[in-house]
Amino acid sequence: MKLLLHICCAPCAVYPLAFLRENSISVMGFFYRRNIHPFTECLRREQTLKCYAQDTDLRVIYQKGYDMEGFLQNVVFRESDRCRYCYHDRLKTTALLAKRGRFDAFSTTLLYSKFQQHDLIRQIGESEAKAAGVPFYYHDFREGWKIGIEKSKELNLYRQPYCGCIYSEKQRFYKPLP
Questions:
Q1: Which residues contact 129 (CB under 8 A, 6 or more apart)?
Q2: For residue range 37-80, what is the model confidence (pLDDT) as tens digits?
Q3: Within a domain: 15
Q4: What would the DSSP string read from start to end of 124-150?
Q5: Range of the structural domain that residue 35 is part of
Q6: Is the pTM of this model over 0.85?
Q7: What is the total count of domains within the chain?
Q8: In-domain check, residue 178
Q9: Quick check: is 151 in a domain?
Q10: Which CATH number goes with the domain that contains 126?
């Protein structure tokens, strides 16, 4: 099987990539960057993935441009449900790219994180799979959560402290004074 794997960051790719390869699945990565804020964080994550990809012989497609404004325009007034939009945009983009590249399936490293909404990711992935005509490969990669963390630390990969968008950055760092 030839699979296109949406990659949010290098540390989240460690376990899924190992699992997929152990199961004889040929993997190509896709780095989606429009939701990552600020731009310096986006570049740091991209550079970390480039180093990791080189070390693991993983070919990766890197999204061009940086349409942060488009991302914000699509979530404004829907901030409490922003993840739905973000999942949808990333998975739709990956599905269409998988179709264009004649992949057998697509998946996402979002399924590795215990902080993501797995049921929603699966629902959106399956919906986008039908629309694009490319199967969504679902696997609950959370089983390897600790393994991935240990390996990413061993590899000295930059481990970002928040999901990626400006809202998750605020949630992580803003602590109102009493």
A1: 95, 106, 135, 136
A2: 999 999 999 999 999 999 999 999 999 999 999 999 999 999 99
A3: yes
A4: HHHHHHHHHTS-B----GGGGHHHHHH
A5: 2-173
A6: yes
A7: 1
A8: no
A9: yes
A10: 3.40.50.620
Element (H, E) at 115: none
- Rounded to an integer, what distance in angstroms lies between the CA atom of residue 158 and that of residue 71? 24
- 């590795």: which residue's tokens? 112
In a domain, 43, yes or no: yes
Q: Which long-range contacts (CB under 8 A, 24 or more apart) does 44-50 make?
A: 44/158, 44/160, 45/9, 45/10, 45/158, 45/160, 45/164, 48/9, 48/10, 48/11, 48/157, 48/158, 49/7, 49/9, 49/10, 49/13
The closest of 55, 44, 50 to 29, measured between CA atoms, is 50
pLDDT of residue 178: 87
Residue with tokens 């325009």: 73
| Residue 12 near residue 90, CB atoms below 8 Å | no
Asked if residue 38 has a cis previous peptide bond (ω within 30° of 0), the answer is yes
